[in-house]
Amino acid sequence: MPPPPALSDTAVCEQARLSRDARFDGLFFTAVRTTGIYCRPVCPAPAPKPGNVVYYPNAAAAEAAGFRPCLRCRPELSPVDGSWHRGDDIVARALALIDAGALDDAPLSALAARLHIGERQLRRLFVERLGAAPIGVHGTRRLLFAKQLLTETALPVTDVAMAAGFNSLRRFNAVFQQAYRMPPRELRRTPRESTGDALVLRLAYRPPYDLPAMLDFLRGRALPGIEHVDETSYTRVIGEAAAPGWLRVGAWPASRGDSAPDALRLELHGCAASHLQDAVRRVRRMFDLDADPDAIAAHLAADARLAPLLRRRPGLRLPSGWDGFEIAVRAVIGQQVSVAAARTLTARLSQRFGARLPDALAAQGFAHLFPTPEALVDADFDGLGLIGSRIATIRGIARALIEGRVDFDRSRTLDDFVARWVALPGIGPWTAQYIALRALGHPDAFPAEDLVLQKTLPGDGSRLGARQLLAHAEHWRPWRGYAVFHLWREASASAPAPASSPTPSPRARRPRSSPT
Predict the structure, then answer these.
(1) How open is the CA angle 291-294-295, to the nearest 5 degrees?
(2) 202 DSSP β-pair partners
(3) Where is there biased composition of kind Basic residues (predicted)?
(4) Where are the domains of the chain?
(5) DSSP 8-state symbol, 106
(6) 45-83 b/e with 16+ CB inside 10 Å = b?
């Protein structure tokens, strides 16, 4: 077995393993030479002798060294190491693309080309930083996802193989057997509890997590007929008109007197096996489940203005969106108007142009999908209450997406993404940064032209200009997006959003009055 990459402090790992310290869950894995198994540091099994232990920074590195996952502590349920959730870092962008299936049907050279880097250099970066090559990371992630489906659901093995990205059951069985020393059906010996027609999955996160704040943000923007948010959960229609489904996200409940795990409960209805990974990926991004709140807070707390906000709301995350085009349309409609007004206008648009849903979904409150770019590119917006410049911008976005001039490609840097979007008529820096923040969940996106940020940061009634705000926020990198939401939350808690500003210029470059 090859030696593992160096960890920062093996003595800390040893102490965390022996004390089963949950703070280190997902930050390293413990591999045992005598058993060939790797575990989470919180594994309840008897602790092995120190001489038999090897530490690895992630599951892929442990599996690359020939170890297989523990069936008791289930490494697939550990929270993600948020140290690589850094937006523009090459490894971070590569991991986002791998999560999105970039290596499912394409070679490593294609992934490297999308990142504008050589294949050999990309492999070297992965091995140096993660302890495993990109192909190994990809293989481990889809096998652990398959293991979760096999363990938690009654999904047929054939569907599990498809959901994990395998084109054939035979190939899946062979790869699973080789990696885990058992056939997939071995995990099916324990009967699964029936959940009706729902598929229920546990999505782990690193605490603290402020779910009420996340739901509160989404509730104020929920579109009737598409999504619904109550005090404990978020519900949304997904899929296409020909085969719609829906999902519900809420806290994972406590059981048998134990406290609830650090996880959300994802309930999926009518989601095809081939779309499961995409649905999980979207929910994880939407609810920002891969962040490391302690590391982010430690960095931002150096700013005296942010420190008390971070203490007040330690689990605040970046609320992203289900679909990039939907967020872009919302951003344009929300320019210079209140959140409530933007929601009303967007609801009218989606009701008129969104594909109708079967009556069977009416019981869940679903009536239509959000319109596609094709549905809006030449649509008649008359009577919706949108001004001409907004209509032109929405049509322009739809056409640019169809033609490939803009996209939501996670391989792009923030600067590249923003530059492409501001090239469109009606899209200024505020709108482009807002789209990056909520469509990509980019942790460093920063709409410096936002009036709420300019007025809230000083905290003394004064207002900073956009350049002053950018200069002040420079030391917040690479987590400026989290500072944005802390300041927005502070502003909304202290006073209502300011009144709308005058109508912006055609390129929509004037400062915005409130976050949409």
Answers:
(1) 75
(2) 265
(3) 507-516
(4) 10-60, 83-152+155-188, 198-290, 324-494
(5) S
(6) eeebeeeebbbbbbbbbbbbbebbbbbebbbbbbbbbbe
CA distance 291 to 448: 23
Write out the two tokens for 326: 């939907």
Core vs surface per residue 122-143: b (16+ CB within 10 A) or e: bbebbbebbbbbbbbbbbbbbb
CATH superfamily of 10-60: DNA Methylphosphotriester Repair Domain (3.40.10.10)
* DSSP class per residue in 321-381: -S-HHHHHHHHHHTTTS-HHHHHHHHHHHHHHHSPB--GGGGGGT--BPPPPHHHHTT---
Catalytic residues: 39, 450
Cα separation, 104 vs 111, in Å, equals 11
**Which CATH number describes the domain made up of 83-152+155-188?**
1.10.10.60
DSSP string, 117-164: S-HHHHHHHHHHHHSS-HHHHHHHHHHHHHHHHHHH----HHHHHHHT
Instruction: Please give the DSSP secondary-structure letter assigned to residue 504.
Output: P
Model pTM score: 0.92
Pairwise CA distance, residues 280 & 273, whole Å = 11
Beta bridge partners of 31: 38, 54
Structure tokens at 434: 């807002």
- Rounded to 5 degrees, φ, ψ at 10 are -65, -25
**Unique residue bearing structure tokens 């795990």:** 261
Taking a C-beta distance cutoff of 8 angstroms, is the pair 241, 234 a contact? no
Q: What is the DSSP letter of 442?
A: -
Instruction: Tell me how far apart the alpha carbons of residues 81 and 462 are, in angstroms, rounded to a whole number.
Output: 39
Closest among 346, 344, 356, 353 to 378, alpha carbons compared? 353
For residues 364 and 235, is the Cβ–Cβ distance under 8 A?
Answer: yes
> pLDDT 10s per residue in the chain (516 long)?
444 455 667 889 999 999 999 989 999 999 999 999 999 999 999 999 999 999 999 999 999 999 999 999 999 999 988 766 567 899 999 999 998 889 988 999 999 999 999 999 999 999 998 999 999 999 999 999 999 999 999 999 999 999 999 989 999 999 999 999 999 999 886 666 656 689 999 999 999 999 999 999 999 999 999 999 999 999 999 999 999 999 999 999 987 666 778 999 999 999 999 999 999 999 999 999 999 999 999 999 999 999 999 999 999 999 999 999 999 999 999 988 899 999 999 999 999 999 999 998 988 899 999 999 999 999 999 999 999 999 999 999 999 999 999 999 989 999 999 999 999 999 999 999 999 999 999 999 999 999 999 999 999 999 999 999 999 999 999 999 999 999 999 998 875 544 333 333 333 444 454 445
What per-residue string of b and e applies to 26-37 under the rule 16 or more CB within 10 Å gives b?
bbbbbbbeeeeb
Q: How far apart are CA 158 and CA 380, in angstroms?
A: 45
Same CATH fold assignment for domains 83-152+155-188 and 198-290: no
